[in-house]
């Protein structure tokens, strides 16, 4: 559900507990993201929007995978952007 648009329908959200949560999305191949979208349901139909995410950060992982299975897989995390809704 994380990658599917909800078209603003109430109840089609991803419930996350706590003030800091993480969502990891692993892709099969490397990409260069051009945009990120965080959707909020409209205030006119929401029961309570006080818990909706307001600030989010997007990180990427650089996988320096080697074909030799005996070599470890070091990964480097880097910030792609920090956004406020």
What does this structure look like?
The chain is an all-beta fold and 85 residues long. Helices cover 0% and strands 22% of the residues. The chain is built from no helices and two strands. The chain has strands at residues 55-63, 75-84. Strands 1-2 form a two-stranded antiparallel ribbon. The radius of gyration is 17 Å and the shape is elongated. 0% of the residues are buried.
Q: What attributes does this structure have?
A:
85 residues, mainly beta, two-stranded antiparallel sheet, 2 strands, 0% helix, elongated
Which helices and strands appear, and what pairs or packs with what?
Blueprint: E1 55-63, E2 75-84
Antiparallel strand pairs: 1-2
- Spatial order of the strands forming the largest sheet: 1-2
Distance between the termini: 20 Å
Structural class by SSE content: mainly beta
> Overall mean pLDDT score?
75
In total, the number of strands is: 2
Proportion of helical residues: under 10%
Task: Summarize the biggest pleated sheet.
Answer: 2 strands, antiparallel
Question: Which band does the percent of strand residues land in?
Answer: 15-25%
Shape: elongated
If helices are DSSP runs of H or I spanning 4 or more residues, what is the number of helices? 0
Q: Return Rg in Å.
A: 17 Å
Q: SSE string, helix = H, strand = E?
A: EE
List unreliable stretches of 5+ residues.
none
């Amino acid at each position: 559900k994380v990658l599917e648009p909800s078209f603003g329908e109430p109840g089609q959200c991803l419930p996350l507990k706590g003030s800091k949560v993480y969502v990891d999305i692993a892709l099969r191949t490397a990409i260069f993201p051009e945009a990120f979208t965080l959707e909020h349901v409209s205030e006119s139909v929401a029961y309570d929007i006080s818990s909706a995410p307001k600030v989010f950060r997007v990180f990427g992982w650089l996988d320096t995978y080697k074909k030799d299975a005996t070599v470890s897989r070091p990964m480097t995390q880097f910030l792609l952007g920090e956004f406020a809704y």
